[in-house]
Amino acid sequence: MYKPIIVIPFYNHFERFLSFYTSVERKGIPIVIINDGSDYGQGRKISELCKSRGFFYIENAENRGKGYSVISALNWAFDNGFSHALQIDADGQHCADDIDVFIKKSQENSDAIICGNPVYDDSAPKARLKGRGVTKFWVRLETGGVDIGDSLCGFRIYPLQRVKPLLNSLKFMRMGFDTESIVKFAWDGIGVINVSTKVIYPKDGLSHFRMIYDNLSLISLHTYLCCLSLVNLIGKVIRKCRIF
Q1: Cα–Cα nearest to 187, from 133, 240, 131, 145
Q2: Could you tell me the domains of the chain?
Q3: What's the pLDDT band for 243 if we cut at 50, 70, 90?
C-alpha cells in the first residue's frame, strides 16, 4: 500500500518555515519535523507548532547535520509503516505546489527515487549555479552516466523499502548527504526520475552553507565517490573475467 509521509529537516528556520508550512500542510499528507539541535528559542517554537498542528516531531539533542536528521526520519518512517518519504527543505526554497506532481510520479514508479530538477529564477546566486554544474559532471562520472538532474536538490521522494538497507552505508551527514545518497542508491540499481520544479532564493532566506568548509567537504565527497566507483568497476571486471 502506498503510504507517504513528508520529511522536513529543520535547523533555525522558524521564520521562513512559518511562511511555508501551510502550503505543505494543505496536501493532507502526514508530516514529520526533525529539529536538528536548533537554538533553544527556535527549538521551543517549532516543538510547540508541531504539537498544535499534529505534526510528528523528532529532536536531535545537538546539531548533527541534515543527513543524520533525514536518515533518522527515514528509519522512523519505515518503522512506523510508511512506504515513501518526501523530503523537502524547511527554508521555503522549494515549490510545495509540486508535491502533488512528485506523489503522482512516485505512485506510478513506486520503486524509483523521484528527484527534483531545479528551475531557477534570477534570485539564484551565479556561483551556486556554476557549482551545481560542476557537481552534475562528477555525479555523471561516478554513476556511469545515470541522468540525475541535480544531486544537490533536497526535494525528492524515497521508496523506503528500497533505500532502508542502504542507509548505514552513508558517511556524509551534512551538505554532502543529498549527493552521496542518490549516487549510492543509483549504484544499487534504484531508478531515478527527474521532475522539474521551481527553486527560489528568498532575500530573507537563511543559508547554512559554509563557503570554505562545505566546498572542501564536497571535494572530499567526490574524491571518495570516484575512488569507490573505480573500485566497484574493477570488481565488476574481475568478476566478469572469472566467468570466462
Answers
A1: 145
A2: 4-243 (3.90.550.10)
A3: low
